[in-house]
Amino acid sequence: MIRVAFKILLHDSAKFLALVLGIAFASLLISQQAAIFHSVMESSARDIIEASEADIWVMRPSVETIDQPDQMPELTVQRVRSADGVEWAVPYYQSVARLRTAGGVTKSVAVIGVDDASLVAAPRVMLIGSIEDLRQPDAVILDAAGFASIFPGVPQRVGDVVEIGERRARIVGISAIGPSWTGLPRVHARRSLATELARESSDSVTFVLARARPGRSADEVAASIGAETKLKAFSRAGFKAVSQEWVLLYSGVAENFGITILMGVVIGVAIVGQTFYMFSVENLRQFAALKAIGVGNRRILAMISVQALFVSAIGFSLGIGVASLFFAVFSPQLTGGLRGMFMDPAIFAGTGIFVVVVTLLSCVVSARRVFTVDPAVVFRS
Hints:
Layout: H1 2-10, H2 13-43, H3 46-50, E1 56-59, H4 75-81, E2 86-100, E3 106-114, E4 126-128, E5 139-143, H5 144-150, E6 161-164, E7 167-175, E8 186-190, H6 191-197, E9 207-212, H7 218-229, E10 232-235, H8 236-250, H9 253-282, H10 284-292, H11 297-330, H12 345-372
Parallel strand pairs: 3-8, 5-7
Antiparallel strand pairs: 1-9, 1-10, 2-3, 2-6, 2-9, 4-7, 5-8, 6-7
């Protein structure tokens, strides 16, 4: 009977192709939009992700997201270091400043000040130069996308002197870091220099980065820091989740992408469901012939299910393949709005499950027509 099911499915190549392409389009639309949404949410916590050495972030109670820092006094670092379970703690500075090139190009840039001694939170993937070059006088590291926007058409290089916040700075390295939520070029410098670039004279700590001692969980130590210092403290994963939650609630991203993904789901249901339903209905005469020779409804349902699984597997493979190719082409680029975007394995699996479930449901609905068809229809003209 399985062989017969495939013959019924493949005898009209045009209808079979339409069915496969419909499922492929639905798979492409859903997986691509979901992956872009997930990548955008990851970019909203990019600087948290990049500072991989630290597993605890400490901030003022007023801070809701990494992009809205509130400055703290230098003494805060010592208070965190003395908290129970803390192995080490270093200051971290973040602000926005104006950059001006010798050619007159002016850009707003995100200035990130890393600990002068340890260079914790400095970019770890460098295209040109080394993070140790930050120890040079007036040294800054610029991200690749930022370099392309500030020096359009110029090959990547180091040595350019720029003015940031009326302070001289020299580009000593080009980093490869993922896209940020704000889209601003990111300049890394030692904190002592970063505060001068941003023209800060006091309270030059926006966050304190810390690590829990071996054997202690980051969440446990963060709770201890909060209790002892009356500051807000999160594990790295916790602060990432808080920042992303803020973006979901207040930025409008969830609504915009949610509508697009919902449209993809609705279109997917409509395309997959209606196409497969019409396919089954148009083959009623073949199923009627099978019933006329004594094939039961259970066997027919099994045949339709095999057809549904076969079609959904091919359509999903094509759709997810095109989506993966899309990200494979654009994600590795160092510049552009799609750089760094990727498809999480959960999206891959979720799309596949969705396509199979919708196809099988369509199979069950269409089977009702098959179950009630009169076998005598095959003998009518």
